[in-house]
Structure formats: structure tokens, C-alpha cells
Known about the structure:
The radius of gyration is 35 Å and the shape is globular. 36% of the residues lie in helices and 17% in strands. By secondary structure, the chain is an alpha+beta fold. It has helices at 18-30, 32-59, 99-111, 123-132, 142-150, 169-176, 221-231, 245-255, 283-290, and strands at residues 74-80, 115-121, 159-164, 182-189, 199-203, 237-243, 272-277, 296-301.
Amino acid sequence: xxxxxxxxxxxxxSFEGPERTSRRAGWLRAHARLxxxxxxxxxxxxxxxAGEWFLHERSRQPLxxxxxxxxxxxxxxxxxxxxxxxxxxxxxxxxxxxxxxRRRIEAxxxxxxxxxxxxxxTREQALAAFREGEPPNAxxxxxxxxxxxxxxxxxxxxxxDVVLRPGDWAGVRRRIExxxxxxxxxxxxxxxxxxxxxxxxxxxxxxxxxxxxASRGAATEAEKxxxxxxxxxxxxxxxxxxxxxxxxxxxxxHVWWEGIDLGGDLPALNESFYLKLDRPPVMRDLVPFFTDxxxxxxxxxxxxxxx
Length: 307
């Protein structure tokens, strides 16, 4: 020994020495699958959360109108001469249809191959149906009350309601319209929305004399969104469709199959929401949801005549 003392080794301050680093690397290697799974899970949860929000928002948006079917069946209304039909050319100065004329009209209808069936409606039956029917606009029932009070059976025409198969409807008109005792006939294709929806909410168009839309113009986008929000608070709504003006015009031309002049731009044509419900609609229960909303012209059942 030479008597010299060895210098003590210098200690280094380290938060992670080789041993700890080695241990952590070993743990990560041993649990690589777990780490990967957790990372993927967090990523998936984030994507799902965003996806759920997107799907929720998209589910609130109305559907476009269904592609079809576009009915090719229809109805023929045969209206007969009576006490209040003297303004019609075929009835002028001749009085009420006779029993003999009625039998001839019925015989002609039975011979038409396009006729699937028909029923006769008396003036009293027509008045009862008019009085028992719901108003055209459930949001303004009072507008129909005065008309109901003033209308008498004598004001209603006798008529035949005729169900038509596809075929030569122009030929049907030529055969039935000239018959003695017939005041006029109307032939319509069955309505597009019949059977596809239960309730229609008509929005204010660009031009309209209806009380709720007078002097205001078409419903705004904000008003449409407010109506849509209210629709989502109605219980039992299975589907919501939005019909824009081009589709509404297409539907109108479908019903008026003879291609009449519809007046060009038609500023009074409505955009509408159509609702499919899980049960038959009760209009008095639906009215409170929409009474206070601006931009809404009317609320009614979907019928085979107007929709």
C-alpha cells in the first residue's frame, strides 16, 4: 500500500437512472397490447361522440319527399243539376235532374271500363258530410263556422263519387259530361301524399290572403327552424318530410292530370312539412303546438283531395 486514499466516486443526481428507464421500457414492452388498446379506445370514443352528435343533428332534419309511388288511380265527381246550379251551362233554365236522367247516368257509369265503383250522394248527405268534416285549417276553425250556419241542403248539389282505374280518362269525360242532368264533372288523380303522411303544416307562401299570412311574405328560414323544433316536441311523430315549392308544383300537376294552365310562378304555392304519426291524428290535440308560431298558414289532415 502506498498510503494514498482513493477519491470517492461523484454521485450524479438523476430522476431516472438506467435501472428505472429499463424497468419502464420493460413494462411498456410487456403491456404493449394494453397501451395500444387504450389508445385506440380513446380515439374510437372521441369519434363515436362526434358521430352521435352528427347523427342526432341529422335526425332532426326533415326528410325529402318519398320518390313515390305516384298514384295512377283517381276520382271522378259527377255533379247534377239542381236548385242552385242554374249558373252552369248544362243546367241553365232546366231545373233539377229527374229520376230517369239519374238512371241513364248510372247506366253509363256501369258501362265505362275505367269505373271501379261509384256511390250516389244526396244533398242532405252532402250537407251532413260538410258539417261533420274538420275545417280545412285547424288553426282557424272560426272561419268555417259562419259558412256552416249559412249553408243549407238546397245549396249542396247531388253527385256521384266515382272511383277510377287507370285508362282513358279524357274518354270518360267525353262520355259522361254531355249527359242530360249533369252540371259538370271533375276528374283528379289520387293525391301523392295520401297514405304517406297524416298531417300537413302549410307555411306562409310569398303571396296569400289568408289571415295568418296576409301582408307578410314567405316563411323565413328561422321560422321554418322554429316549426321544426316544435314538431320534434309532438309525441308520436314517426317521420317528418319537407316539401319545397318545386315538388309542390309537381304534386299539383299530378293531381290536375289534364295539364291545365296553373298560372306560371304560383306565388301562393306553399312549402310544407308533412308528418307521419304512429296513430290517427287528433287535430284538436295538435293545434296548441303550432298556434303561436309565425310563418304557419295552416294545419290539416292529409286528404285525398287537397294534398
